[in-house]
Design a protein that fits this description.
Number of helices: 8
Radius of gyration: 16 Å
CATH architecture: 3-Layer(aba) Sandwich
Largest sheet: 6 strands, parallel
Shape: globular
CATH class: Alpha Beta
Strand order of the largest sheet: 3-2-4-1-5-6
Bound molecules: adenosine-5'-diphosphate, magnesium ion
Order of helices and strands: EHEHEHEHEHEHHH
Number of domains: 1
């Protein structure tokens, strides 16, 4: 099973949004994805578990992992070919556990975010694990919730430039369809927003390419 981890120490950056849309899109492309909600159930935060409770029976299967032992949990699960972990940001141990479990980590970066700390911390955590394991997991930034006017803050730009990994060309812009789909337990493919759909398709295309290249 290939594992993709959405990791960022800051919340509200689009981890759950990208995880759910990616899982639905991969399922549409013929994969058997498992969504992993790595964090305590939190009614204040729209989590994968909340999303899953509203989604229909056709939606990707979801499990919750409360303890920072994502790797062990996944090693005992069969019947899926790709796991997508949505790791809660405020728990460092959970983020590190998700990094350990992943073949590819995606770090959503919200260009307008005032606080670059969460990005710096997760880049350090990924680097530390790559140093231990000859470069695993692979990693990419993914620009999330961009607006026409949102130029990346200088400090964020610097972290992205100096990190030992690059960013996806594709990303999400700020669009109502994302919030609607998350709230309704669906994906942007169930909304009429063609732009949002093509953003998610492009993210999924790039991820498939990276995973294929990494396999070789
Ligand atoms: N591209 C986007 N456009 C508009 N709203 C978005 C977008 N991405 C996420 N959101 C909204 O922003 C909030 C935080 O996103 P979420 O995916 O829950 O972030 P995280 O999991 O990192 O906390 C949610 O209300 C979500 O609907
Ligand atoms: Mg979330």
């Amino acid at each position: 099973m290939t594992t993709i981890g959405l990791v960022q120490r800051k919340d509200d950056v689009g981890k759950t949004t990208i995880a759910t849309n990616l899982a639905v899109t991969l399922q549409d492309r013929g994969y058997s994805p498992l969504l992993v909600d790595a964090g305590p159930q939190d009614p204040q935060q729209g989590t994968v578990r909340d999303w899953s409770a509203k989604s229909g029976s056709q939606a990707p299967e979801t499990i919750g992992v409360d303890q920072p032992a994502v790797h062990e949990k996944l090693s005992s699960i069969e019947g899926f070919d790709i796991a997508i972990i949505d790791a809660v940001g405020k728990l460092k141990e959970m983020t590190v556990s998700a990094i350990k479990a992943s073949d590819l980590t995606l770090v959503p970066v919200r260009p307008s975010a005032a606080d670059p700390k969460g990005i710096g911390q997760v880049v350090d955590d990924i680097k530390a694990h790559q140093d231990l394991t000859k470069g695993r997991p692979d990693a990419r930034f993914v620009i999330s919730r961009a607006t026409g006017s949102s130029k990346m803050g200088e400090q964020i730009q610097q972290i992205v430039n100096e990190a030992p990994f690059g960013r996806l060309d594709a990303g999400t812009n700020q669009r109502v369809a994302y919030a609607r789909a998350l709230g309704e337990g669906s994906s942007v493919h169930e909304t009429g927003d063609k732009e949002a759909q093509s953003e998610i398709d492009a993210i999924t295309d790039e991820i498939e390419q990276i995973l294929r290249a990494d396999e070789q």
